[in-house]
Specification:
The protein is of the alpha/beta class. It has 2 domains: 145 residues, 3-Layer(aba) Sandwich (Rossmann fold); 73 residues, Orthogonal Bundle (DNA polymerase, domain 1), CATH 1.10.150. Helix content is 44%, strand content 12%. It has a 6-stranded parallel beta sheet with strand order 3-2-1-4-5-6, with helices on both faces. This is (S)-2-haloacid dehalogenase. GO terms for molecular function: (S)-2-haloacid dehalogenase activity. Its EC number is 3.8.1.2.
């Protein structure tokens, strides 16, 4: 297997901790676990929009899905709740293991970039605020191609922009659907199995090339394997 030289990091949940949104769901629904329901539905409807040939920014989808989940739970969602969701999303912190792991990976000679479903915000950048931006050379979003991961066009924009073959890339994500999409184009896949996430073991579908329960252990494994 060719050793990848560029690590492409998913952002939401992989680098940034979505648990920061939980107080909103606890207040609205009396159960912080509804956060996971909302996030899973957000991913489903982002992918459904792509399959239907439609596009709306991830933040707008997130607001719409919050209202939809509120309706299914019989909980009214006000504009102030939607505004709080946006504020909390922009304020999500990096997981504690992120900055040390990125430092080690960059020091080991990997090139680091990010690739997110979220559209760029000209007024607020969570990656700048958390210190992640200084460790990556490029930040990619689905917004230019107007399709959500795991659509092939999303990953292809990265390989085209960096002018490298597919086997030069490894997608690092907390979600098996994301690594699966990248592996379908010949990329490697690395899974950081954050709480609530795991590898998908199905005959005929590729497992991640490397997996670990946190980014520190995943960085160690990638350095051993590819450096």
């Amino acid at each position: 297997m060719t050793k990848p030289t560029v690590l492409v990091f998913d952002v939401n949940e992989t680098l940034l901790d979505i648990a920061a949104l939980e107080p909103l769901f606890l207040r609205l629904f009396g159960d912080g676990a509804v956060l996971r329901e909302w996030f899973a539905q957000l991913v489903v409807y982002a992918q459904a929009a792509t399959l239907a040939g439609r596009y709306a920014p991830f933040g707008a989808l997130g607001a719409g899905v919050l209202r939809m989940v509120g309706e299914t739970h019989g909980v009214p969602v006000a504009e102030a709740d939607v505004a709080e969701l946006k504020d909390r999303t922009l304020g999500m912190p990096a997981h504690p293991d992120v900055l040390p792991a990125l430092e080690r990976l960059r020091g080991a000679g990997f090139r680091l970039v990010t690739l997110t479903n979220s559209a760029p915000d000209p007024d607020a950048s969570p990656l700048e605020r958390t210190g992640i931006a200084r460790l990556v050379e490029r930040q990619f979003s689905v917004d230019p191609v107007r399709r959500f991961k795991p659509a092939p066009e999303v990953y292809l924009q990265v390989s085209e922009a960096l002018a490298l073959p597919s086997d030069a890339f490894c997608l690092v994500a907390a979600h098996a659907w994301d690594t699966l999409g990248a592996q379908g184009l010949g990329w490697s896949g690395a899974l950081v199995a954050r709480p609530g996430n795991a590898a998908l073991c199905v005959p005929g579908l590729p497992l991640p090339d490397v997996a670990a329960p946190d980014l520190s252990a995943l960085a160690d494994a990638m350095i051993r394997l590819w450096r």
